[in-house]
Design goal:
Elements (H helix, E strand, L loop, with lengths): L1 E6 L2 E10 L2 E6 L2 E11 L2 E6 L2 E9 L7 E8 L2 E8 L1 H8 L8 E4 L4 E6 L6 E2 L4 E7 L2 E6 L4 E6 L6 E2 L4 E6 L3
Antiparallel strand pairs: 1-2, 1-8, 2-3, 3-4, 4-5, 5-6, 6-7, 7-8, 9-16, 10-12, 10-15, 11-14, 12-13, 14-16
């Protein structure tokens, strides 16, 4: 299970894997053996790198429906954090085409399945601009604000790499 961990304004890549009965936690690319046992509902004993800590985990609140928020209470205080599917984190980071204008870039390598706008179109915030297929999943890339499409830089059926400009928007007016 790979997730993007959000702590305040920081993001970290987190993955838990189990192979041959051994649990491994990978934090920002650094792997370490882990042992996690639920000792009572909502309370876990966590051993990482030879250190043990008891953690009480409660659901938190988030304004973003794609982020699952939690509050972890440890011996030294409480910590708020969120977990997000890394694909959704990439799609959120791909934004940039907004009311002030901007560029919508490819969040990952993939294929352009459908372009739903053309140059000169006025679009609303949240409107789907194009559909991209990556890792056998279709992803809708949306406008982060209202504006006018000034350039469509890709074609349907074409493939793109991460960071490639897909389209450019300018402020309407």
């Amino acid at each position: 299970m790979k997730r993007t961990l959000l702590i305040g304004k920081e993001t970290h890549e987190l993955e838990l894997t189990r192979q041959d009965g051994v649990l491994t936690l990978t934090w920002d690319g650094e792997a370490m053996p882990a042992d996690i046992v639920e000792v009572e509902p909502g309370t876990y004993s966590v051993i990482l790198g030879g250190s043990s800590v008891d953690v009480r985990l409660d659901a938190g609140r988030s304004n973003d429906p794609d982020v699952h928020s939690y509050r972890a209470t440890l011996h030294d205080g409480a910590y708020e954090f969120g977990l997000q599917d890394p694909m959704k984190a990439l799609l959120a980071a791909a934004g940039g085409a907004s009311a002030g204008g901007g560029t919508l870039s490819s969040p990952m390598p993939g294929k352009i399945v459908k372009i739903l706008v053309k140059e000169g179109d006025v679009v609303a915030e949240g409107q789907t601009l194009l559909i991209m297929e990556a890792m056998k999943m279709q992803n809708e890339l949306k406008a982060t604000g209202a504006g006018k499409v000034s350039k469509v830089a890709v074609a349907e059926g074409g493939t793109v790499e991460t960071g490639v400009t897909l389209l450019v928007m300018v402020a309407e007016g």
